[in-house]
Amino acid sequence: MNRAKPLPGYLIQRYHGWKATSYADNASWYRRLADEGQRPRAMVISCCDSRVHVTSIFGADQGEFFIHRNIANLVPPYEPDGDHHGTSAAVEYAVRVLKVAHLIVLGHSNCGGVKGCIDMCQGNAPEMEAKDSFVGRWMDILRPKYEEVSKLPDGVEQERQLEKLAVMTSLENLMTFPFVAELVQSGQLTMHGLWTDIGEGGLEYYSAESKRFQPV
After folding, report:
1. Cα separation, 75 vs 85, whole angstroms
2. Which of 32, 78, 90, 121 fits as disulfide partner to 177, beta carbons 3.0 to 4.6 Å?
3. Could you say which residues form the signal peptide (predicted)?
4. What is the pLDDT of residue 1?
């Protein structure tokens, strides 16, 4: 039985405010987007975390980014097994249909998914070990990287480094998609790894030359 209910009042008020201001001021642009379709230059794969506001960070307007969000901004390996793969479907659509020029993976500080992965690896999250834990099985994508941070004495630094390894894992897995690897190797598609510090508003990018993240 469908149990959907009307929106809460505060969201309805916000919608009417947006329609009367932002939309009204840019109605022709919205109609153009609707009529002509989207032509984003970049796909951004970011975390579901509500504190990560991709469009605000880059001052982007509607139609600029094709955004896919999931737990810990992870991309699984290419696996054409006929099952349901939401992230892989989004990547396929962005690259093959929209023909984006850039694939951006954006990680962030204080990531709950990464913290959960650490807890799971340390034996402190038995509920995530259960087969019916969707979050636990999703974080299995990152689990092999825990060994690289396990010897760090500081828990905060463990989390920060694993957050950045989550970005690197996604970049590595993106290259297992044949249609991504082909375009990257031909120079028609570029990939970028970013990490943002929520509290400080900082942004770092992965440098292939220095093999580390450095400030933008």
Report:
1. 10
2. 78
3. none
4. 84
